[in-house]
Amino acid sequence: MADIMTPAQRSERMSRIRSQNTKPEMLVRRFLHGQGFRFRLHARDLPGRPDLVLPKYRTVVFVEGCFWHGHSCQKGRVPGTNPDFWQAKVACNQARDKRNQRALRRDGWRVIRVWECQLAKSKTRAAALARLVSRISG
């Protein structure tokens, strides 16, 4: 199936996709702050610029988009249009994520990933956030 947008329209639409302060990230931040956790945001001095850094617990949290990081859920599937490009793009993102995770662990950080799909529905959201708190403090 052909793209219904011109390259300029597609480029403009893609440029609006944010990498920081996304809805799932804001949800996690509000919840953790309400639970009494204090953290730094988007630490440039750490590999991968983690979304949240909890120095007291020596823990970093990445709130990942399922599509962009190749999660094995419905939201993480490859589009039918230009699948070779998207598979290569996601594979590069996953390789970068692994490199950053190894570097963080080597430096003594605990790495936690929260997936966008876990926060989508209220049932899974509550369980995911409770699991996050137990992993941080446990």
Automatic annotation (TrEMBL):
Enzyme Commission code(s) on record: 3.1.-.-
Family: Belongs to the vsr family.
This protein's UniProt keywords: DNA damage, DNA repair, Endonuclease, Hydrolase, Nuclease
Function: May nick specific sequences that contain T:G mispairs resulting from m5C-deamination.
A Gene Ontology molecular function term of the record: endonuclease activity
Domain of life: Bacteria
Protein name as catalogued: Very short patch repair endonuclease
InterPro entries on file: DNA_mismatch_endonuc_vsr, Restrct_endonuc-II-like
UniProt entry tagged with the keyword Nuclease: yes
EC main group: hydrolase
